[in-house]
Design a protein that fits this description.
7-stranded mixed sheet, Peroxisomal Thiolase, Chain A, domain 1, globular, 183 residues, alpha/beta
Length: 183
């Protein structure tokens, strides 16, 4: 049986831990405008953060909150899903190619043109070495994905880990991560 230990949600309304709003956002604020503020609020010291795309920033920040106080992170599995994938960064990279007068494809942007990079960033930051997967799903199917993930966790006999949904496109962001243990 999969038991949720902790839940972190970040949306345009704010940052929630187990449904308690720990950092409210002003109405109409986009999550991507608040990422730097949340980084400072958490008092992180991770300079690589400022080179990341917004999807990775969102994942790193949520994981930081989710994993606070967790020991022995090496064996945490990570199973995530997204709808827009890395489309926001892909679009930015494509714009560096499209402008013939200012043609300069940037390798710095290209680094973040895969959706599973966010998992890699979380693993690097927290020294996690276990199984990890990223699924591209339709946002309307989140509940189905969660049910399938629970079955996957039980089938693979995973003991502890993170699963959830994250998405970031056009300045809008949403993330819901769960820390889980199994019996």
């Amino acid at each position: 049986m999969v038991n949720s230990i902790k839940r972190v949600t970040i949306s345009n309304e704010g940052v929630f831990v187990n449904n308690v709003n720990i950092l409210p956002f002003a109405e109409g604020d986009f999550v991507t405008r608040r990422l730097k503020e949340l980084y400072h609020h958490l008092q992180l010291d991770y300079p690589k953060f400022f080179k990341m795309d917004n999807l990775s920033k969102l994942g790193i920040l949520a994981a930081e909150i989710l994993l606070e106080g967790v020991e022995n992170k090496k064996e945490l599995a990570i199973i995530l899903s997204t709808s827009s994938s890395s489309l926001e960064t892909d679009t930015a990279f494509q714009q560096t190619i499209n402008d013939e007068d200012n043609f300069f494809p940037s390798p710095a942007v290209f680094v973040y043109t895969l959706p599973n990079i966010v998992i890699g960033e979380i693993c690097i930051r927290h020294q996690i070495y276990a199984e990890n997967m990223m699924f591209i799903i339709n946002e309307n199917n989140i509940n189905d994905f969660y049910q399938q993930t629970k079955q996957l966790i039980e089938t693979m006999k995973l003991k502890r880990g993170i699963f959830g949904y994250l998405d970031c496109y056009l300045g809008q962001g949403k993330i819901e991560l769960f820390l889980f243990e199994t019996n």
